[in-house]
Automatic annotation (TrEMBL):
GO terms for molecular function: RNA nuclease activity. This is HTH OST-type domain-containing protein. Residues 259-337 form the HTH OST-type domain. InterPro entries: LOTUS-like (IPR041966), NYN (IPR021139), OST-HTH/LOTUS_dom (IPR025605). It comes from Microterricola viridarii. Residues 232-243 have a biased composition (Low complexity).
């Protein structure tokens, strides 16, 4: 590995593994196969009921990628699956919005097994030799087949992080990793016990972690899918936009409010990740902004009308506290019991 102190992360997602494990976690073990859920997207009657269960078991890939970004800059992100299958294709918006490389794997046997574990392992080992600056490997899967991969990556000097679904993860795989995270415990994931009323559909799940926003929201405006009409009023309101689509100078108060709420959710999630990782509520302002940019590179406080990041943070005083007496201008989330009802200030 090179002498650079910058941490770079590779994220490798066994897509079928995580989707099936989540479904079985919520609807009893083996239910995905019993329901033939792979082919049940859309339809009526019994198929419609299965589609509803699939929606309830939506995997929030944004939260996974946000967690991975807390270890450093994500240099490689790949998801392995048969993307011609409707259930996998329904996650297209989440994946495209986060620039995840989709690796196509057609099934080669009657059991529909596509060899994702072998292809993923080969790619990881190749990347470890080809990219010497890759310091962290994040394996999103719970299959014991990845134990050898985790062990080999550690031998090669990489920090290995596993992410899996409770009930669908091999204990031996968790032990083989330097760190293993339960999907339900990731910041932005609604706990299973409370998820029924608030879980989004696959087509509208948040792309940057929490549920509901295309870049940074626990709640708010869901991203538009390809089969939904564009909001022509919003398009007309945008005076200027970045290549990623973020309005630089939204003219309407509605757009300004939505953009500020979105940025506030991004800030909150960055603080949650920092607190979970460092076991410290107070986070240095610079570290928080760096984490926000890892999660959403289009974030710009000036585009929201603030001359500095500190001014932006102060506008979120209903949700966060700032300690300007500290040399690093520390920030923390207000305790849940004291947080005020948040609404973006149109006069900010």
């Amino acid at each position: 590995m090179n002498a650079s102190t910058e941490t770079r992360v590779g994220v490798y997602i066994d897509f079928d593994n995580i989707v099936i494990s989540r479904y079985n976690q919520l609807h009893t073990r083996g239910q995905f196969q019993k329901d033939h859920a792979r082919d049940a997207v859309g339809g009526k009657g019994e198929t419609a009921a299965i589609t509803q269960r699939l929606d309830e078991a939506t995997v929030n890939l944004g939260a996974i990628l946000d967690f991975a970004s807390s270890f450093g800059t994500v240099g490689v992100s790949r998801a392995y699956a048969d993307w011609s299958v409707a259930i996998n294709a329904s996650y297209r918006r989440q994946l495209i919005d986060r620039a995840v490389d989709l690796v196509q794997l057609f099934p080669v046997v009657a059991s529909m097994k596509n060899g994702a574990d072998i292809r993923l392992a080969v790619d990881v080992v190749e990347d470890l030799f080809r990219l010497p600056d890759l310091t962290h490997v994040v394996i999103v899967a719970g299959d014991s087949d990845y134990i050898a991969l985790a062990q080999r990556a550690k031998v090669l000097g990489r920090y290995v992080v596993g992410i899996g679904v409770a009930g669908g993860t091999s204990k031996a795989l968790a032990a083989a990793c330097d760190e293993f995270a339960d999907y339900d415990a990731l910041p932005g994931i609604v706990r299973v016990s409370a998820a029924q009323e608030t879980r989004p559909s696959r087509r509208k799940a948040g792309t940057n972690g929490t549920n509901g926003s295309a870049s940074a929201a626990d709640a708010g405006t869901a991203p538009r899918t390809d089969d939904e009409p564009a909001d022509t009023e919003a398009v007309a309101d945008a005076a200027e936009a970045t290549p990623s689509g973020r309005a630089l100078r939204p003219r309407s108060s509605r757009q300004a409010k939505a953009a500020l709420e979105e940025a506030g959710d991004l800030l909150a999630r960055a603080l949650e990740l920092g607190a979970a990782k460092n076991d410290e509520d107070w986070q240095a302002s610079g570290n928080v902004k760096n984490q926000m940019l890892r999660m959403d590179p289009t974030f710009q406080e000036r585009a929201l009308g603030f001359s500095s990041f500190t001014d932006f943070v102060k506008s979120m005083d209903a949700r966060v506290e700032i300690d300007e007496s500290h040399p690093s201008r520390r920030i923390r989330l207000r305790p849940l019991g004291t947080q005020l009802m948040f609404s973006a200030r149109s006069d900010a």
